[in-house]
Design goal:
- The chain is mainly β and about 200 residues long.
- About 15% of the residues lie in helices and about 40% in strands.
- The chain has two domains: about 80 residues, Elongation Factor Tu (Ef-tu), domain 3 (Beta Barrel), CATH 2.40.30.20; about 90 residues, Elongation Factor Tu (Ef-tu), domain 3.
- Strand 4 and strand 5 form a beta hairpin.
- The two termini are about 30 Å apart.
Amino acid sequence: MFTGIIQAIGKIVQVKPSEDDSDRSLSIMISSESLDMADVLIGDSIAVNGVCLTVTALHCRLFEVDISPETLKCTQGLDRPDQAVNLEKALRLSDRLGGHLVSGHVDATAEVLRFLPVGANYQLTLRSPKHLLRYITHKGSITVNGVSLTVNAINNDEVSINLIPHTLSMTNLNALKPGMQVNLETDMLARYVENLLHRSEA
């Protein structure tokens, strides 16, 4: 479990087939940059661009994770060397919940339609997959590349979000351009509520 508050920007430094490459899984090595790794152990979870991944090896300021074909199919930005990635260690029960509850299980990718300056801020407009729109609400929470954000407006399948300078300086969202794909996770509470309502009607 995560909060969507990014702790560091890392970089993918190596991508290779995993040791058991029969299922086309990848092993990637990530430079943790300024992320405090002192309390990270093999087997711990780290969100990489919003994707919950398990640490399989540690090398000083580097760590390795394996990525399954299913994860590669529904995410972006995890199989390209030199890609900057948002990093967040798993939430501890004693931590502040500064963003919202994030599972690290990306629902799908979304297309960047517009990324425009509005004063000191930027307005990000995404095209959401239609099947996810029922989980996205005005002033509700959404996760983009692992960053907890608040939805400002919804127009058909377009979702608009305001990004403040602090968010831009602390994440890789400052490099977004129209046509790019981002990892999108909707609010897990909305999905649980829908599931409970569906079961109660059955």
